[in-house]
Amino acid sequence: MRASCAPRLGILVRNAVKFTRSGGKVTVRARPGAVEIEDQCGGLRSGDEQKIFEAFRQSNEDRSGFGLGLAIAQQAIDAHSGTITVRNLPGQGCIFAVTLP
Asked: 48 and 59 in contact (C-beta within 8 Å)?
């Protein structure tokens, strides 16, 4: 994992902590070239899987941010020829997966 992407991965971890339900947990799994961050946010609304990466998009009632974190993370990961995806676990949470060459 490239060191210059590390701060952008921090965005994903901070979002996971921010949106995980009280008493829930955040799990970070890492292996060479890949990181997964799993939260217990309750899941996304149907169809929001790609919209959440748009600038200024907020999918939750918590409007304490600007809705830029995931857009910035995606741009940084794209700039390193990587990918970021989200897998929605309805009623449970989300798994954000980042891969870098």
From this structure: yes
How far is the C-alpha of 94 from the C-alpha of 49, rounded, in Å? 9
Q: Where are the domains of the chain?
A: 3-99
pTM for the structure as a whole: 0.82
Token match 């899941």: residue?
Answer: 43
Q: Distances in Å between the alpha carbon of 21 and those of 3, 18, 101?
A: 30, 8, 33
Give the right CATH number for 3-99 from 3.40.50.2000, 3.30.565.10, 3.40.50.2300, 3.40.640.10.
3.30.565.10
pLDDT digits (tens, 9 = 90+) for 35-88: 999 999 999 888 788 788 887 666 656 556 667 888 888 998 999 899 999 999
